[in-house]
Inverse folding.
């Protein structure tokens, strides 16, 4: 019986030590990949796609600004029409709905 308890204790200690060792190994960041050919030659990255707006509606309020946070302010007909900016592929409205004067 003592042999079984000793063996189980040794297995438990080995499992805990392995789990701690695996946690330490996973905590280190992976090495960075080598630079690609474009990075080595110094080729510029492709320009980001600029999302442009639509022509303003006849009843559109005046444009609040030309740029906001270094992004061009554009008109969109979404949500009844409003001025806003495109940031990371999402439209951020800067004015309220032109038809309902609300959200």
């Amino acid at each position: 019986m003592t042999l079984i308890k000793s063996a189980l204790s040794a297995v438990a200690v080995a499992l805990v030590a392995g789990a701690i060792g695996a946690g330490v190994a996973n905590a280190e960041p992976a090495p960075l990949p080598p630079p690609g050919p474009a990075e080595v030659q110094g080729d510029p990255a492709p320009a980001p796609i600029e999302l442009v707006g639509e022509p303003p509606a006849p009843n559109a309020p005046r444009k609040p600004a030309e740029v906001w946070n270094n992004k061009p302010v554009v008109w969109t007909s979404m949500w009844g029409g409003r001025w806003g900016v495109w940031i990371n592929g999402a439209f951020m409205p800067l004015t309220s709905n032109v038809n309902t004067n609300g959200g």
Notes: The two ends are 75 Å apart (CA to CA). DSSP finds two helices and five strands in the chain. The first strand starts at residue 67 and ends at 68. The helical segments are 2-27, 37-41.
